[in-house]
């Protein structure tokens, strides 16, 4: 019995070995972590070696990253202690290397390589505990920041005192004021929430600021098309006013100015879709098609107008920086006022009164009525059909206001261009308001468009 039992055990062991020749070997995850650490370290090390760094290069950075990963693997229950000890040891070695450089008369006040070395050790530790995604993202950010030294320094050197104040204002608007506002509803109709109102201010200032920064960075390279696109994202009304004034002094630029104004006004529809998607995604299912139809109509007009004018040049507009505290406060007040008026009109007079409010508020600003309408839809105060139609009426009203501004400030030729293009867009918008059915884009099927 003992002999047979021993023989059976031996056979079972042989079967196990044959079926799994790697039985007893360590799993592959640690080796994969080491490989990732090696790759991330090589990426940053390559950049530092290319910059001829004397502290660490293409060999040292991978070693530092792998060291961090190994510290986490062997740390067991004391990973935090091991990580801290490893970080201190790397810092000491960097200090020794800098002391040696100073004694050799090679003093360099920069600390970029040293900080990058400490960061890569931390990234190695992150890989060692399984945080591979954040480690890869952090390495990519580090590599880009290291490689863009001259470009970043050039941007900072090109900044004026006005630009720096704008950055501080943006930080004040989004990082200081927003967190301290109370997140509760005040007043009648339950729509005035200081935190929500200022959050919409941050959203609009953020969108405009991104476009403004792109506009400033591109400088003289901003042509008619890009100038119109960025102008629509910053402020289509300001773009129309700026180019209209230019044509008063130089009537020969009226055609190109009309193209820029039309492009900026077309981009307003895209901006409206973005705002709806961010604030009320469920409304976008109903509003996407009609607003996109108007966007497409105006885009076709842009193409038809661009073709005969493509060889003309346009002078860049002078946009004010959108990240200023006073305009932000004014927009916050305007948004709160429109929000209150929409709620009150809906309560007292029904949906029809909303169109009048949209017509008035849309004259100078599309953002307030768009955001307030989206918020009212989120709170089930208005239905989807009414919501997108209110926004469409505001769009038509905004076109009328810009045409009036052109009539007062621009040349007659510019007014002719704008009247024709905006008139076609207004007719298209009116047709959409009158005949567009209630459609949920998520319910559409290909068979709906085949006969």
SSE topology sketch:
Elements: H1 2-19, H2 29-50, H3 60-75, H4 79-103, H5 112-128, H6 132-147, H7 149-158, H8 161-180, H9 194-218, H10 224-249, H11 254-279, H12 281-309, H13 325-349, H14 352-361, H15 367-378, H16 384-409, H17 412-435
Helix pairs in contact: 2-3, 2-5, 2-6, 3-4, 3-5, 4-5, 5-6, 8-9, 9-10, 9-13, 10-11, 10-16, 11-12, 11-15, 11-17, 12-16, 12-17, 13-14, 13-15, 14-16, 15-16, 16-17
The count of β-strands is: 0
Q: Stretches where pLDDT falls below 50 for ≥5 residues?
A: 9-26, 446-451
Count of helices? 17
User: Secondary-structure element sequence?
Assistant: HHHHHHHHHHHHHHHHH
Mean pLDDT: 81
What structural class results from the helix and strand content? Answer: mainly alpha
Total domain count: 2
- Helical residue percent? over 70%
* Termini gap: 82 Å
State which percent range the strand residues make up: under 5%
Rg is 31 Å
Shape: elongated
Strand count, sense and barrel status of the largest sheet are: none
Report on this model:
By secondary structure, the chain is mostly helical. It folds into two domains: 29-154, no CATH class; 159-440, no CATH class. It is 77% helix and 0% strand. It has helices at residues 2-19, 29-50, 60-75, 79-103, 112-128, 132-147, 149-158, 161-180, 194-218, 224-249, 254-279, 281-309, 325-349, 352-361, 367-378, 384-409, 412-435. The longest helix is centred in the middle third of the chain and has 29 residues, at 281-309. The chain starts with a helix and ends in a 16-residue tail after the last helix.
């Amino acid at each position: 019995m003992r002999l047979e039992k021993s023989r059976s055990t031996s056979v079972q062991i042989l079967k196990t070995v044959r079926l799994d020749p790697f039985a007893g070997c360590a799993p592959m995850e640690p080796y994969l972590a080491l490989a990732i650490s090696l790759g991330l370290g090589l990426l940053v090390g390559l950049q530092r070696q290319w910059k001829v760094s004397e502290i660490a290069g293409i060999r040292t950075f991978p070693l530092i990253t792998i060291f961090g990963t190994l510290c986490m693997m062997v740390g067991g229950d004391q990973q935090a202690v091991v990580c801290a000890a490893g970080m201190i040891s790397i810092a000491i070695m960097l200090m020794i290397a800098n002391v040696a450089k100073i004694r050799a008369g090679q003093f360099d006040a920069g600390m970029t390589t040293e900080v990058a070395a400490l960061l890569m050790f931390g990234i190695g530790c992150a890989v060692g505990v399984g945080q591979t995604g954040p480690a890869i993202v952090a390495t990519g950010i580090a590599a880009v920041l290291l490689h863009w030294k001259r470009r970043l320094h050039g941007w900072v050197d090109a900044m004026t005192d006005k630009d720096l104040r704008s950055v501080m204002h943006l930080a004040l608007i989004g990082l200081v004021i927003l967190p301290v506002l109370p997140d509760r509803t005040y007043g009648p109709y339950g729509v005035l929430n200081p935190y929500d109102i200022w959050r919409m201010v941050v959203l609009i200032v953020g969108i405009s600021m991104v476009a403004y920064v792109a506009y400033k960075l591109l400088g003289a390279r901003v042509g008619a098309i890009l100038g119109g696109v960025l102008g629509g994202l910053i402020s289509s009304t300001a773009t129309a006013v700026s180019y209209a004034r230019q044509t008063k002094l130089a009537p020969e630029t009226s055609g190109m100015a009309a193209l820029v104004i039309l492009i900026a006004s077309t981009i307003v529809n895209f901006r409206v879709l973005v705002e709806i998607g961010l604030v009320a995604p469920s409304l976008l299912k109903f509003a996407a098609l009609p607003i996109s139809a108007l966007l497409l109509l105006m885009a076709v007009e842009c193409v038809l107008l661009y073709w005969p004018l493509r060889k003309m040049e346009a002078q860049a507009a002078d946009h004010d920086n959108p990240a200023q505290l006073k305009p932000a406060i004014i927009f916050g007040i305007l948004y709160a006022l429109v929000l209150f008026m929409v709620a009150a009109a809906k309560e007292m007079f029904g949906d029809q009164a909303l169109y009048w409010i949209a017509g008035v508020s849309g004259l100078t600003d599309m953002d307030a009525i768009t955001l307030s309408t989206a918020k009212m839809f989120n709170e089930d105060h208005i239905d989807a059909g009414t919501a997108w139609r209110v926004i469409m009426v505001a769009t038509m009203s905004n076109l009328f206001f810009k045409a009036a501004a052109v009539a007062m400030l621009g040349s007659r030729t510019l007014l002719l261009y704008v009247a024709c293009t905006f008139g076609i867009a207004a007719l298209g918008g009116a047709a959409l308001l009158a005949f567009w059915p209630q459609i949920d884009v998520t319910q559409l099927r290909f068979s709906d468009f085949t006969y």
